[in-house]
Structure formats: C-alpha cells, structure tokens
Amino acid sequence: MELLKLTVKPWSSCLLLGLFVIFAFLASLSVAEIHYHEFVVQAKPVKRLCRTHNSITVNGQFPGPTLQVRDGDTLVIKAINNAQYNVTLHWHGIRQLRNPWADGPEYVTQCPIRPGQSYTYRFTIKNQEGTLWWHAHSRWLRATVYGALIIYPRLGVPYPFPMPKKEIPILLGEWWDRNPMDVLKLATFTGAAPNVSDAYTINGQPGDLYRCSSKETVRFPVVSGETILLRIINSALNQELFFGVANHKLTVVGVDSSYTKPFTTSVIMLGPGQTTNVLLTADQAPARYYMAAHAYNSANAPFDNTTTTAILEYKSVPCNAKKGKSSTPIFPQLPGFNDTATATAFTAQVKSLSQVKVPTVIDHNLFFTVGLGLINCTNPNSPRCQGPNGTRFAASINNVSFVFPRINSLMQAYYQGQPGVFTTNFPPVPPVQFDYTGNVSRGLWQPVKRTKLYKLKYGSTVQIVLQDTSIVTIENHPMHLHGYEFYVVGMGFGNFNPSRDTAKFNLINPPRRNTIGTPPGGWVAIQFVANNPGIWLMHCHIDSHLNWGLAMAFLVENGVGKLQTVQPPPLDLPRC
Ligand code: C2O
C-alpha cells in the first residue's frame, strides 16, 4: 500500500493518528498469506465394509487434509511421493493464471512424480471464492487421494448471504472393496467397462446402510435455530449423485468457485468435479435426520445403486431418543436413479448472483460431440476385446479419442519446442454431421486415437456447444475445463439447433463454473475468454470415460508482454 504524504499541523495530529489507524487497518486487509503444506502420498491401512485395504492417502488421512485459504493467498504444497505409483496432484477449479506448471494433470502439464520423488506446487488464488477441491490426477488414484480446498473471501469481506453459524465440508466419494488401481488395470486390459463401486461415502464413511459401517457413520451436531453452510463436493470417480437432508430445505448460494442467486430446493445433483454450497437452517423438531446421497444414473449401463448416509443430529435431541426404537433417523426422499427431469431442472436453476459480462463477439464457435464409442478388434475373441460384441470401449470428442503422450508432458514439449508429441489440428466441428441423438449408424461408432490440441490466440473469445451423442448410450457427461471458468449460457435436449437455440441463451446471469454436465441426449453451451496462456485439458470428469479418451486440450498462446506469457517452469518440475 502506498504511503500518504500529509502535511503535519499541530491541530491535526489527532486526525493524523486516526488516519494512521484506519490505513494500518486497511493495509492489514490486503495482506495475503502464504500457506506451506507437506503432502506425503503414502499407503495406509483403511478399513471399510468389513475389510482393510492398503489405500493410497495424503499424510495417512482419508479423505485427505482440508485446505483453507483466502482469496489472494498463496499455497506452497510440497508433494512427496512415498507410494508405489506415479502420482500428480490437481487443484480442481483453481485458475492457475500463467502457471500451468502447478495444474497437475499427468502428461498434460507435468510428468508424473515418481515413487521416492517430490515436486512443490506453488500457486496464488486470484479472484476466486467458494468451495473447490484437490485430487490426484493420475489414473484412478483420486479414488482415495482427494480433499477439500475452501477459499474464503479476503479478510473483512463478507459473504453475500447471512453469516452461517458453522460450515461443514461434505465430500461425497466412491469406494471399491478392492484396489481401485487394479480395477482400472483390469478394465484397461479387457477393454470392458470397469467394475462399479461397492459404496458411496460421506467424508470417507459409507454410513448406516452398509455392512460393518454404522459405528463410524458421520454425525453433524446442530443447535436448533442455527443456520449452517454445507460445502458439498462430488469427489466420486464415476457417478453423478443426488443429495438431500430429511425434512430440511437447502438454499443454494454457490457452485464451484462462484456465488449464485439463492434458491431453495429439497434435493441437489452434482456431477463428479462439481461443488455446491447450500445453507441449511435447523428449523425442524429436535431429532436425528439422515443426509443421503445416491446415484443419478443417466446412462444405459450398470451402476452402484447403494446409498450413503450421515446424520444431522440436533443437540437438544431428547436422551431417550438417542437409544431405543425411536432413534432411527428420518430418511430423506431422493429422486429415482434415472430422474433426468429433476437433475436437469436443478442444474438449469443455477444462475449467477448478479449480472455478468459475457463476450459480445465470439472468435471461435466450436461444436463438440462428446460420447462413447467402440473400437473394433481384428480378433473379437481376444481377452483384450471384452467390450460389447468383442470390441473395446472408447470415448471421444469430435470423433478424436484423446491419447495422453508418454515421452513428455504436452506443456513441457510445447515449452521446449519438442516436435512429434502433439498436433494442433483438433477439429472445431465433428468430421461428419449426423443425427447425434438419434439412431446412429454403426459406421460412426469408432473414433480415431490421437493427441490433438486446439490452438487459441491469447484473449480470443470461445463458445463451445457440447453435444452428447447416443453412440453406445446417451449420458450426462460432466465436462471439466482446466485453467478456466466458463459461463453456462444454455442447455437443452436433442440436437443443438443454432438458429433456434442461440436466441434463447442466457447472456444476463449465466452461472460461472468449471464443470458442467451435458444433459443426456442433449447439449450444453459454454463461453469463455482465452486469457490464460498454456495447455489446458478439457475432459469428462467420469474417470472411466477419461481413460477411454473423453478429453481434448486447448493450447492458448502467449499474448503480449510478461503478464500475458506463461511463467518459466519451476526447477523441480519432474521430467518424463
Ligand atoms: Cu478434477 Cu482434470 O480434474
């Protein structure tokens, strides 16, 4: 903060002192903190569903540690890999301006941290507030390697809603009663779909409805009359989830790292990667109430149909109610597994808190088909072709199934000018036009495997219509863009029709997010300004789809001058 030049006059010394106090106070407001952490990635015995697994964790914690920072703060996290697997960490939703080196996706912005090695992630949070999270970005390690990343407003800046009495992070997870890395390995070998999970979890615990679990069911005490903020994160690997609390209304006040126009609902839906902040007032009879989550399954595919629970427990609950028969908590009504109407209506209700500035002219009008596919095998009886009718599952955007390079990360290859690692000819529209959500001819089911990037000039404006296809199955694909937040300006069912649908876009108060699902058999339109140079992955946050290639990446070129140019890489950046 700049010093003020004041002429000192005897009569004004009191005023001067007062001014000094005020400026000292203001100066303290602008002080950003630097938070240092050590994240040791290590195996740790974790017992769930009657069995103990040697799970990969951070610092032996499951879920991992919660990071709490303010807007403007810097995080310095030394990741030490003491596990037997390669690992990287990703700070989901953090913009990482000019700093792709701290983003984390394996083989995109960095090479993996090998067992025994370490890498320090260093980044500053700029103009973001809300609930984000961090997770491993290396194969399926994020099944157990994840935690909350909470960004409070700058010191002295209030929330745009009444201050809650307390805040509770709620991490929804997914648990396999075996090593998730082996589940992935098997699926990668056979080409079939990976086994579905055995449980969902709330803050790492499956809850009362699972075997050997009720003793550890998570309980949240509340006092009658108080309002609490739930920071709900879908950190499940492969499943969209409905979430509700018995007899209690939820007031949505934020999604991802943005505030939203408040609205009240009894159930919310989150795709993997998404977060939702809700206010809950303890205005019901003092008792015990379940909060619960189960699948929203939009695809024609097997899924884990179990339900995870935790308990909202009023502190004034009568003693006799704690024991005895009457102690069974009240259960919330969750929508049916395939209730697309409820899921879509909820997502469509989310709006920005106030009017926003969307780009007025679009430089890149992109149309991306997203969906599954099948790779034909020369020998359909091969053990490696156990997908439908002797094929292997694949997934693609505009018929390109993304292949992660192995010889170097994309960002390192780009920065070093190493040729042959990727091309920049990712198609802006699908190679063939067809009835995307109709009966698609088999000839269009097989994508090509490539490492293609789409190049953007610094500062250019981008619109992407993400069009789900009915190839193999229609499905809600939670699409996540690294390094950016985008405005969700429209969504609908069926094929996108530019002349009809563009006119209906919400350009006034569209929500700002980092992850948005395609309605199953429908489309969603997003807009952003390419003002963050680097290589940024966009992918489906259903990890099984990511492994099948449902990804692409943007190469955003440097602009003019230092402030529009990617920072030099840290010296300890791992090499491939
Ligand atoms: Cu939450 Cu690419 O990830």
TrEMBL record:
SUPFAM superfamilies: Cupredoxins (SSF49503). It catalyses: 4 hydroquinone + O2 = 4 benzosemiquinone + 2 H2O. It is an enzyme of class 1 (oxidoreductase). Keywords: Apoplast, Copper, Glycoprotein, Lignin degradation, Metal-binding, Oxidoreductase, Repeat, Secreted. It is found in: Secreted, Extracellular space, Apoplast. Its main location: secreted. Coiled coil: none annotated. Lignin degradation and detoxification of lignin-derived products. This is Laccase. It comes from Xanthoceras sorbifolium.
